Amino acid sequence: MTSQTEDSHGLGEEAPSSSTPASPLETSTSRSPQKLDDVMMAMDIVDTLRHRALIVEKELGIDARENAMIERLRDIYAGQGIEVSDHILQDGVKALEENRFVYTPPENSLSIKMAKFYIARDRWLKPLIAVLGLAFLSVGIYQFGIKGPANSAFSKNQTALNETYKSATALAQTQFSRDKINTYFTEGQNAIKEDNPKQLKSSVNALNIVNEDLEKNLRIRIVSRPGELSGVFRIPDNNPNGQNYYLIVEALDLNGKAIPIEITSEEDQKTKRTAKWGVRVSERVFDRVKADKQDDQILQMAEIGAKKRGSLRPVYSIETDGGAILDW
User: Fold this and answer.
1) 230 and 236 in contact (C-beta within 8 Å)?
2) DSSP letter at 139?
3) CA 320 to CA 278: how far, in whole Å?
4) How far apart are CA 213 and CA 262, in angstroms?
């Protein structure tokens, strides 16, 4: 049985087989690969050296500094009741000098940044998917719920503009009617060029009204009902001594229904669609109608004009310059 000797530090170790003691600085190159326990012990030694700040004077040589650290480590582990062999202590000291168990982070290159970004995907992937999903949903709603129908409506209005223009042009019998048709059609074409759906729709609606008005045959008749005026006169602002005379008329279809048409006031140039307006006549015509009504409250010659198919403005059978008013 091999005898044991007790050194001055109280740590027991096997007596060497040779009579010459082995130096703690010697490392056997023929030693078998280290066991996991030895590696773990070396790591613990390195950790102890770091955390306990075992600083040895720089003036000492490398071998002396290593021996001093090993001696101090023996004291520390002996105090903990741990027996550590010299070669493990030496490996621990060498590992510290070689930074063997020190983690050196790689350079923060683009590939490292991408790797970190990928590793953190649990934090950003779900929110990103949610945002992308919401974006696709919004695009879908806009494309199929708003943009698609808007494009379809715009295309339909383009077709309607051309078709209504052709229909109205075929009906028009006067230059005034043709000019109005061309005005609205030009506005619609400009709206198409400018991608302005609101203006295009407005132009189509205006052309539709013109087309409908051109289709109508209407009679122009003096209003003659209890409680309603058949005529009025005005004193012009620019001629206090003069008077302008107007007969109050309305446009009726073949069934006697009042139908609005477009009338422009000569007083302020405002245009309005109305079924009843005042048409300016001479004093002689005004007095004749007045006498006719005063005779028996019935107008014998109430019909004084017509709005014919293909025309937008009434044509009167009495003496008039066509001037009109919208209120009285």
Assistant:
1) no
2) H
3) 11
4) 9
